[in-house]
Structure formats: C-alpha cells, structure tokens
Design a protein that fits this description.
- The strands form 2 sheets. Strands 1, 2, 3, 4, 5, 6, 9, 10 and 13 form a 9-stranded antiparallel β-sheet that branches. Strands 7-8-11-12 form a 4-stranded antiparallel β-sheet, with no helix packed on it.
- Helix 2 packs antiparallel against helix 3.
- The protein contains 3 helices and 13 strands.
- By secondary structure, the chain is of the alpha+beta class.
Length: 258
Amino acid sequence: MRRVFFIAAILLCVALPLSAQEAFDPAESRDEISFNIGLLTPMQRGVSGYTTGSDLALQLDYRHFWRSGLGVRSGIVFSPDYQGFENTFGVPVALVWRTGSTEGRARVDRGLNAAGSTVRDGRLPFGAYGDGGSLARAGFGAFLLNLFSRAEFYAGLTPGWIPGAESIYRSNYGGEGGWEESGMQKPHSFSLTADAGVALTYRIWRFNLRLSPMVHYSLINNYRDYTAQYLPTYPRPLERTKDIRWHFSLQFGLGFLL
C-alpha cells in the first residue's frame, strides 16, 4: 500500500517540470491529482458510552472535470489501524460538482465581508453571543474560511476490505468469579460505504490546498462494538452490542492541477 503513495509522489514530481513548460490557464484545467491526510473517527459511541477509536487516513485522489463543472473522482484510501483492524483500505468512486473559481481581490473582499458581518452581528457560530475576543477570533476564522478559490461537492461509494482477525479481550469481573469480554467484532470483511462531502480549495499557481470534511455510512455492517459479562449466577452471558455505521473524516490535502 505504501508503494502506491510512493509511486504517486514520483509521478507528481515528474509532472511538475513537464507542466511548467506550458502556459497554464487555471480556468482550462480539467484534471487534478491530490494527496490527503487526516482523521477518521466514528460518529457514534460504543456500548460503554465512549468513542470506539479514531485513526489516521491517507488518501490519493484523481479528479476529472468537464466544462459544466461536473466531474468524477476515484483513488485509494488507507488506514493503518482503524477500530483495531490493521491496514484497512478502500477505493472511493464519486460524482463531483465544482463551483466556478474566484481569484485575487474577489476572495479578499468576500473574506472581509464575512468577517465584518460576524463582528457586526455580535454572534458566534450556532447563534451564541460572545465577548470581544471571541468575536475577533470568529471574525478571523470567517475571513480565512472565505478565502477559498472554489468548492467541490461530491457523493459516491467506497468499496473496500478490512483484513485481520477480531480482537476480543478478556478481563476479570468484580470478585464474583466471573469475567468480561469486550472488543470490536467484524461481521463482514468486505466493506461498502456511502459518502458525501465538500472540499474547499485555495489555489496557488498549479497547487490546491484542500480542506475536506466527509461523512461515511456503512451499507454493510463492518464494525460491531461488543461486550459480554459471564457471571456464575447467570446461565447465559449478558451481552451488549452496537453497530457502528456512521463515520466522519476531516482531511487536509495538496493537489496539483494538470
């Protein structure tokens, strides 16, 4: 898996000098390759009321767009140790629509207007009122958020594979001679998620700085939080399970326009 990202980095380095020889018009760019790194975390709590674990997510993407703004996206995503299972990976495929590009002074004006509206109204996000320091920070955040060049909206599917065995741990339970088992079960190794998200990009020459929040829903039940108590006074174990289907990822990336 690491070889894939290494080869992609080499191809990107080769493409840089070749692309630099041609006059670049960002409005005519129809293709982009990007490398993204971020956090993958469940949106639901486990049976004990705690989050079941987050992990790093690495993603390599390729996107192609038509003049209408509609495009397609595919790539590969990899997590070293998500929910206790090592080296999980998927192949995201999505339809994408991107807005027109805003450049130069227009971006600064948009950011200043957003910052001014935040401070003038005296409201923080989610409708709360704040003091001067909080409003200043919120205004600065609104300014930065509105400096993006364009937005991309996408929805699609990610088939994937979850290798490895389940890790169920056993521990003593109280002083009654019983014990407890807990861990993450894997009903299925093949995975399929429905994905939706948005990417905000900030262009510098051929490079795009990318911020991408995404929501993922497991169409196949792949992660089941499990706990069971075995007590001498009960003929059967007291089991509790909860399927973890909703997941969230936030990625930062660097793209190169071809």
